[in-house]
Each structure stands twice: as structure tokens, then as C-alpha cells.
């Protein structure tokens, strides 16, 4: 089954992440298929705007930790020691560039977020031009607590340094209401109004000539890129590899293998495990 769906609906292209059984978790195929769908929309003169969503209960729950964390041994995201930072960088930079196809798209992209857009899923959402969330949906990058750094680095450009630090020094998840309040997203609406709200916005954009949309997006993006976006993403992607191959990162990987990734993530997010000493916090020596 195709892991990213594409549909043209009048002047709107609809791209849908399609691994609903795992909350659209990112595997080896999704980045490539996502970028291919974006390219398809951009090659169609009849498409004016892209709506990006997720099938099933969530927009995207991040990278598939069953494959990348819980499975025993090495994989494309975790090498055997000693590790090669440039090999890891090449792998993750490719994924970052594929997510950034949304940013580079000549057609504006509206992300429609329900359920969760977390970890790598937040990277995908934040590469879009505008985000509309359900009020009860959640967004965040919890792997900053251990085993991750957001490679697209969009948090600081959307929020500024103070609020970006709040999110990335805590790993907190926030709901749609708070995401709108702090300026991370365009708008949050009740979940039963999400589809209608996105449709109104997409239809409003779809009435504008393609070249006008393209010029406005290029102009705004250029302002952000002049602030050093590419260089920041290079550092973030390198740091992401380090987080997964640091002593703490390797302890997280082993913990996921031993007790399941769900338990390891629960301990990470609740702050009950000391990843440096590799034991529960306050556990007797």
C-alpha cells in the first residue's frame, strides 16, 4: 500500500501520510514518497495549493521507533561503535532535505494537524507554510530529552529564541490552543471544524494565480534563509547524530531493546530515568 497518498481536487493537491496503523510513523520510504508527491503537485500547472494531512488517528507520531530503537542491533539511524558522523549526517540530511521539499515547494502548503505531530512529525509539519491544528491535537519534539535534535530547526524561526528554548529545553508537548497562542501555528479550531477551516483557507489561496503565490512565498522564505537557515540545519543534523550515538543515546537504544520503545519513551518523557548513569532516577545504588 502506498505510504503517502496523492489526490488532485480541482486546484488543490491533497497529500496524505498513510501508515495509520502506526500513527503515520516515519520509515525509510515516507520521506521519499512525500517529496515525490510535492514534486508531482509542483509539476501540475492546475495545482495552486497543497493540503498535507495524515490518515488515521494522528498527523505523524515521528520516526518509527519499532524499527529504529527497539529492533536489536544497528540500523540506518544507529551505527555500531565507533560510528561515522558523516555517514549519519548524509542519511539524516537526505531526510531533512526531503522534508524541506514542503518549504521549497512553489505551491503553498497547509498542514492539517490532528492527533499528534511530534518528534519527526513536527519537523514535517513545521516545514509547511501554514499549520492549522485541532485544539486537542499536540505538537512537540520530546526526543530533545534524549536521542534527538530537530534537524529542520524550524522552531527558532517560528518562535524566536526564548520560546524555542522553552520547547527544546523541556521536550514539552503543547496542544493546538497553546501552539496558536505562542505563534507556532496559524490557527487552532475544535476538531470537528478542522476540515472546514483548512478547506476555507485552501480555497482562498486557490483563487490566486500560481505565479503570485510563488512570488510571495519565495520572498518570505528568502528572508528566513538569509538568517542562516541552511547553516542552522547543518549543525542541527550533526547534533542529531551525536544525540543518538552519545553514551546517553546508546543507553536509550539499549533500554528500548530491553523493555520496549514505549517504556523507554515513557521514562524519557516523564523524566524518571537517568540516561547518563543508565538507571532509574533515585534508584538505590
Automatic annotation (TrEMBL):
Coiled coil: none annotated. It comes from the Bacteria. PROSITE patterns: ENOYL_COA_HYDRATASE. Gene3D superfamilies: 2-enoyl-CoA Hydratase, Chain A, domain 1. InterPro entries: ClpP/crotonase-like_dom_sf, Enoyl-CoA_hyd/isom_CS, Enoyl-CoA_hydra/iso. PANTHER family: ENOYL-COA HYDRATASE (PTHR43802), IP11341P-RELATED (PTHR43802:SF1). Belongs to the enoyl-CoA hydratase/isomerase family. This is Enoyl-CoA hydratase.
Amino acid at each position: 500500500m502506498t505510504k503517502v497518498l496523492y489526490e488532485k481536487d480541482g486546484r488543490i493537491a491533497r497529500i496524505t501520510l498513510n501508515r495509520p496503523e502506526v500513527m503515520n510513523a516515519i520509515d525509510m520510504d515516507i520521506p521519499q514518497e512525500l517529496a515525490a508527491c510535492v514534486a508531482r503537485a509542483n509539476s501540475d500547472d492546475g495545482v495552486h495549493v497543497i493540503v498535507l494531512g495524515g490518515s488515521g488517528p494522528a498527523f505523524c507520531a515521528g520516526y518509527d521507533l519499532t524499527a529504529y530503537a527497539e529492533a536489536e542491533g544497528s540500523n540506518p539511524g544507529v551505527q555500531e561503535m565507533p560510528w561515522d558522523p558523516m555517514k549519519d549526517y548524509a542519511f539524516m540530511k537526505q531526510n531533512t532535505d526531503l522534508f524541506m521539499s514542503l518549504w521549497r515547494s512553489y505551491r503553498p502548503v497547509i498542514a492539517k494537524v490532528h492527533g499528534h505531530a511530534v518528534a519527526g512529525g513536527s519537523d514535517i509539519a513545521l516545514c509547511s507554510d501554514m499549520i492549522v491544528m485541532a485544539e486537542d491535537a499536540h505538537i512537540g519534539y520530546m526526543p530533545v530529552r534524549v536521542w534527538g535534535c530537530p534537524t529542520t530547526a524550524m522552531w527558532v524561526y517560528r518562535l524566536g529564541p526564548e520560546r524555542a528554548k522553552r520547547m527544546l529545553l523541556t521536550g514539552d508537548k503543547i496542544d493546538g490552543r497553546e501552539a496558536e497562542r505562542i505563534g507556532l501555528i496559524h490557527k487552532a479550531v475544535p476538531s470537528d471544524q478542522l476540515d472546514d477551516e483548512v478547506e476555507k483557507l485552501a480555497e482562498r489561496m486557490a483563487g490566486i494565480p500560481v505565479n503570485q503565490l510563488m512570488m510571495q512565498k519565495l520572498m518570505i522564505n528568502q528572508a528566513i534563509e538569509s538568517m542562516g537557515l541552511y547553516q542552522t540545519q547543518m549543525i542541527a543534523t550533526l547534533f542529531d547524530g551525536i544525540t543518538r550515538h552519545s553514551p546517553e543515546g546508546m543507553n536509550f537504544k539499549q533500554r528500548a531493546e530491553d523493555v520496549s520503545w514505549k517504556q523507554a519513551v515513557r521514562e524519557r518523557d516523564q523524566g524518571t530515568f537517568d540516561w547518563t548513569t543508565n538507571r532509574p532516577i533515585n534508584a538505590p545504588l
